[in-house]
């Protein structure tokens, strides 16, 4: 049995084994479960913006480390990847047509960057919308086939 007895107050709190919280609780990006949580089916939490930013940080690093190419400006790659990240962060509200167009543009300029960008978008932890994830999978498959 989980109990809490505060000194000097003579107060006894019996939670029956669950959590005890005095005051407010703020839950962000998940669930506060006081005892047992039963989940039927799949339960996946994408962290969305935060996790997406972590995934994209590696892409920006890879762009920075690319050898100089007279035909491809790194700034142009960064701008395109930023647009993709910004749109993907909208989740289900993202415009798949825009993302698909930008991924194709990346593929024409830097297939290596397309592959890592598509992989990041296809990662379930990215928390992107379903349509964006499907487009990313398609772009990644096409890039690997070529």
Write structural notes for this entry.
By secondary structure, this protein is mostly helical. The chain has a domain at 49-145. It has helices spanning 49-65, 74-88, 96-109, 111-122, 130-145, and strands spanning 3-5, 12-14. Strands 1-2 form a two-stranded antiparallel ribbon. β1 (3-5) and β2 (12-14) form a beta hairpin. The N and C termini lie far apart (62 Å). Residues 40-47 have low confidence and may be disordered.
Anisotropy-based shape: elongated
Helix percent reads: 40-55%
How widely separated are the two ends? 62 Å
Radius of gyration: 23 Å
User: Residue ranges: pLDDT <50 for 5 or more in a row?
Assistant: 40-47
Strand content: under 5%
Number of helices: 5
- SSE string, helices as H and strands as E: EEHHHHH
Q: Return the average pLDDT rounded to an integer.
A: 78
Number of strands: 2
Task: Tell me the strand order in the biggest sheet.
Answer: 1-2
Summarize the helices and strands and which ones pair or pack:
Elements lengths: L2 E3 L6 E3 L34 H17 L8 H15 L7 H14 L1 H12 L7 H16 L1
Antiparallel strand pairs: 1-2
Helix pairs in contact: 1-2, 1-4, 2-3, 3-4, 3-5, 4-5
Key descriptive features of the protein:
mainly alpha, 146 residues, two-stranded antiparallel ribbon
Summarize the structure.
With 146 residues, the chain is mainly α. The protein has helices at residues 49-65, 74-88, 96-109, 111-122, 130-145, and strands spanning 3-5, 12-14.
């Amino acid at each position: 049995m989980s109990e809490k007895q505060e000194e000097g107050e003579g107060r006894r709190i019996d939670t029956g084994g669950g959590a005890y919280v005095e005051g407010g609780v703020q839950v962000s990006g998940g669930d506060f479960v006081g005892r047992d949580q039963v989940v039927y089916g799949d339960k996946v939490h994408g962290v969305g913006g935060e996790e997406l930013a972590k995934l994209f940080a590696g892409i920006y690093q890879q762009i920075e480390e690319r050898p100089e190419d007279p035909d491809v400006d790194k700034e142009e790659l960064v701008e395109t990847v930023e647009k993709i990240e910004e749109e993907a962060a909208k989740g289900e509200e993202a415009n798949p047509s825009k993302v698909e167009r930008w991924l194709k543009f990346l593929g024409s300029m830097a297939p290596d960057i397309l592959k890592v960008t598509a992989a990041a978008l296809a990662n379930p932890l990215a928390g992107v919308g379903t349509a964006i994830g499907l487009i990313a999978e398609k772009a990644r498959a096409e890039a690997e086939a070529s």
